[in-house]
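Risk register update: the risk that structure generation would not scale has been downgraded. Supporting records follow, first protein first.
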Amino acid sequence: MEIRHAIGPNEAKYFDTDSLRKEFLIKQVFKPGAINIIYSHIDRIIIGGVNPLGKPINLAAGKEIGADSFLERREIGIINVGGSGKVTIPGNEFELNNKDALYIGMGIKEVTFESKQKDKPAKFYFNCAPAHHSYPVKKISCKDAGKVSLGSKQESNKRTIYQLIHPQVLQTCQLLMGITELEPENIWNTMPCHTHERRMEVYFYFDMSDDTLVFHLFGKPDETRHIIVRNEQAVISPSWSIHSGVGTSNYTFIWGMVGENQTFTDMDAVPMSVLR
């Protein structure tokens, strides 16, 4: 488990490109045949990728979280971005096809990941947050999700938001996750941008070709930077930072949020005139 410490805005504004990428970019989410876990001290979120090949992979607790089982005091949201696979917990198993999600509440002692086909392996992306209560396990597909259409072709940001792990769909302690898909010929997301002081966010970009990249905009509104992101990479975005992006082509991303509340209107809009 890789540990990353919290970075404040006064420190981050002096970072060069390498330092910014080292602290906030997750360059490789998936490692073939393995589980990859990053623990961030920003709201104590855990970001992970599981890419099973020939055998199942278990989500095991380490000394970093100080618990006997991984979900002893945590909840987790899982979204499959690869081939078909299954997630097994005691007494139940769930088949997850591409873009299916699974929420598992606090207290589940064992979680195992497996691909259905070795030549088309599953890629389970997950966010995991501290929890105070155990809520029921639930599988969610895009057809079951809350669906919001935003943007316009004129603004190059026509997109659909699928709210998979969201108060309108199921109850969680603090974790929120969903998928945003930009339509062809649309390249901007979350512009005009905003911050939300009471929630941090992680963006995981996927379904991108090898020659496509996204300029993920980052930093305080008056101290903006960019992080170049490629397929199946993620960016950790603190509550003080904007989180917007523009691609060389359309793309898809998973957004995950943890923090003090789940109120989507609790955000601070940033006027275009303020951005620097």
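Supporting record for the second protein:
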Amino acid sequence: MAEEPRRLDEAKVKAFTQRMVSHLTGASVALMMEVGRQAGLFETLAAMPPATSTAIAERAGCTERYVREWLGAMVCGGLVEYDPAARTYHLPPEHALLLAGQTSRNLTSLATFFPLLGRVIPDVVRAFREGGGVPYAAYQPDFTSLMDGRSRPRYREFLFSKYLGAVDGLTQRLEAGLRVADVGCGTGFCVNLMAQRFPKSAFVGYDFSETALERARAEARAMGVGNVTFVAQDVAQLAAEPQFDLITAFDAIHDQVPPGEVLRRIRQALAPGGAFLMLDVHASSRLEQNLALPLSTFIYTVSTMHCMTVSLAHGGAGLGTAWGIELATRMLREAGFTDIQLVERVDPMNTLYVAR
């Protein structure tokens, strides 16, 4: 005798329907956020009192009909306020703080990931079925610019006060003169900032992207810093000599093809008494511990669509963005570090590991 189908819990269906509507609304807002960011509309609104769509479009140099429709999405999404009597739109300063300006609090920069990640969906789905991954080259040149734009406000605000400042006496030692390497330096902005701030120290930036390094060298020249060099280098082959007093890696280790080997090479390249500063995404290695994390879904999405798949594409470990504190600490110990200190949430999204 066939079993009767289990009756659905209608309250659960209703609750999940509401959640799905919320997800689709969020995805729609994220898409429109990126449109508004590229069109300069958030910056325009932040600088204006309540205004009509015509006035906003004129100030932004955009077509009014498109601006009016975009504003409809922003009002329905709760980003922009609307006065129906006056037919004016307003971006409150409390909202503008997170939508405009060159600061780390501007969250529209996160929406820049979605167009880039969306274009590799067929490749990622193929990897789901066949294994392997999507190579780093598939994201270029856009990914370099995306990460550069995302990181600059953070380095300006936190590099000296939070990252380097987290280690007692490090700033003073840098002022006196240290030999410093940055692993996975990308366009080299943080290295150039350090070189400018600490002229008695010598800096080397390592990255495998020659395109990114050319931008780093050009900016070093523009900033007038002569105590920095940039070297095209697979950091999995980092030599034990010369040795450095300080090695840094900002958001770089979890993407590596052989992260354990990179950490071991870093350990060997440290001079006696040297320190390794590793900034990486704040997360646990256990999924259940990440459920309450802000942007946890975003972290796993970026991991699936970029960080993990890029590593797997090259036969790597595929740690993913949420490799987590537990695994990171274990891997640092396996690489030979015996003194590991954590500064959790040194900025809103990252933990700083200080390893000796």
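The longest strand covers residues 270-281. On this basis the risk owner (M.S.) recommends closing the item.
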